[in-house]
Design brief:
The chain is α/β, with parallel strands linked by helices. The chain has helices at 11-23, 39-51, 79-88, 99-102, 122-125, 129-144, 156-168, 198-203, 206-219, 224-237; strands at residues 6-8, 28-33, 54-59, 93-95, 148-152, 174-178, 241-249, 264-272, 275-282.
């Protein structure tokens, strides 16, 4: 039977709810989100439930990870629908702070990220992004004090950055990655998929197919540079504006020359129409 979660919008309310869980010695898993929840997010919630007694979900559209030209104001906000979905999943607590709660007047501290945040992938095109992500996720970890935090692998560089940050800063949180949840045609689920026109939506799964074909060719012994160039060509020919299509070390995200340098992750970012899509798979 679905039950409504506790909704906390202030730090005292959040702490009061968490103190009840801790007093009962219940483990807590956190799923950080920006709302506009889809089946991929709900998969994270179910993984959180598998790992811990209590599940907390944060819903906060973080302005510090958006550049001025990006879609902060138009980012989909579907609070009522989100809350109903979380109730169906029997989430225990929803942390829904306002911008002023997360970034009060005079806020002047930031987490500066290096390592996997500075490898010339997303950071090349969104240099502001990982500083904003690390700062807000660091705050969420401190506020919620979870035992486990669950992130999707679709935002793979983000997963590596958050994992590194939690380890480097001794935050006491186990960061768990969950395999990307996909539509039946292979397209990675994303809140931004709603921006795709019907024609763009029909083309979009080519990203995943091309990664699969490229991974298969690499496993068969194909030359790294030649095989990646062929995949990039197929993506561009389909009408995408390609930002990158690369093979990287799956943990450090550093460039590699062959599968022997692995484990290997293929990562892609490309724009179709006005919508920028990212995806990745292991080789």
């Amino acid at each position: 039977m679905p039950r409504d979660p506790i909704v906390a919008r202030s730090l005292p309310a959040l702490r009061e709810a968490l103190n009840v869980f801790r007093a009962a010695n219940d483990s807590v898993a956190l799923v950080p989100t920006m709302g506009a929840l889809h089946e991929g997010h709900l998969g994270l919630v179910r993984e959180a439930r598998r790992r811990c007694k209590r599940v907390a979900v944060s819903v906060f559209v973080n302005p510090t990870q958006f550049a001025p030209h990006e879609d902060f104001d138009s980012y989909p906000r579907t609070w009522d629908t989100d809350l109903a979905k979380l109730a169906t999943e029997n989430v225990d607590l929803v942390w829904n702070p306002g911008v002023k709660t997360m970034y009060p007047d005079g806020f002047a501290s930031r987490i500066v990220t290096e390592g996997p945040a500075t490898v010339d992938l997303e950071d090349r095109f969104r240099p502001h992004f990982f500083g904003g992500v690390a700062t807000v996720v660091g705050k969420l970890f401190i506020q919620c004090r979870p035992d486990v935090a669950v992130f999707g692998e679709k935002d793979y560089q983000q997963l590596r950055v958050v994992t590194q940050m939690a380890r480097d800063l001794d935050l006491g949180v186990e960061v768990a990655g969950l395999a990307t949840v996909r539509e039946s045609d292979g397209l990675a689920m994303s809140s931004r998929n709603v921006y795709l026109s019907p024609q763009e939506r029909a083309i979009a799964p080519l990203l995943h197919r091309t990664m699969q074909e490229t991974a298969e060719a690499l496993r068969a012994g194909g030359d790294m540079a030649t095989t990646l160039a062929a995949g990039a060509g197929r993506i561009s020919a389909a009408g995408f504006a390609l930002d990158y299509f690369e093979a990287r070390h799956a943990e450090t995200l550093q460039p590699i020359a062959s599968l022997k340098d692995g484990p290997v992750r293929l990562l892609v970012a490309a724009k179709i129409g006005t919508t920028r899509l990212i995806d990745n798979i292991g080789v």
